[in-house]
Amino acid sequence: MWQAKFSDGNVLNEFNGERGVLFGKVLERLDDLESLSIILEDRMFTVRMADGRFSSSINGNVNHFFASDIDITALTNIRPIYFVRETIKLAMHANALSSEGSPNTNFTALGFQANYNGRNVKRYLAILPDGAFVIRGE
């Protein structure tokens, strides 16, 4: 589940009761987005939009880190990265494809893209379903 925090103190969760909230609601408020988090059972991963800093929290113990080899203070136009990569098993039946079963999550990406010295850079965590993660950059 994702959770967005805004500068006015409002918090938007992916699920509001039983209803899902579209991520477009976060994108509508990019100007005042402070942080975006992915919440697993006992872990939370967060990226701050002000400086691209990441944090991970396990049972309330928070660790902050930068997942970047660039000067964070020189970033402009910081935007969130959030997507889920899934695998779906397909079967072919009489010239038609159909899915077999539910999709399996490979990883959830959480991070930022920004402009740095005239080029677009991306840094994100590829978070596996068990809470392990890999830092990726482009």
Structural description of this entry:
The chain has 138 residues and is mainly β. It has one domain. Helices cover 3% and strands 61% of the residues. The chain contains one helix and 14 strands; from the N terminus they run E-E-E-E-H-E-E-E-E-E-E-E-E-E-E. It has a six-stranded antiparallel β-sheet with strand order 2-1-5-6-7-8, with no helix packed on it. Strands 9-12-13-14 form a four-stranded antiparallel β-sheet, with no helix packed on it. The chain has a two-stranded antiparallel sheet with strand order 3-4. Strand 6 (43-48) and strand 7 (53-58) form a beta hairpin. The two termini are 25 Å apart.
Question: Could you name the key traits of this structure?
Answer:
four-stranded antiparallel beta sheet, 14 strands, six-stranded antiparallel beta sheet, 1 helix, 138 residues, mainly beta, 61% strand
Task: Please provide a brief summary of the model.
This protein is mostly beta strands and 138 residues long. The chain has one domain. Helix content is 3%, strand content 61%.
Number of strands: 14
Q: What overall geometry do the principal axes of the alpha carbons give?
A: globular
Terminal-residue CA separation: 25 Å
* Low-pLDDT windows of residues: none
Give the arrangement of secondary structure elements.
Blueprint (H helix, E strand, L loop, with lengths): L1 E5 L4 E3 L1 E2 L2 E2 L3 H4 L5 E7 L3 E6 L4 E6 L2 E6 L9 E12 L2 E4 L2 E4 L4 E13 L2 E9 L5 E5 L1
Antiparallel strand pairs: 1-2, 1-5, 3-4, 5-6, 6-7, 7-8, 9-12, 10-11, 12-13, 13-14
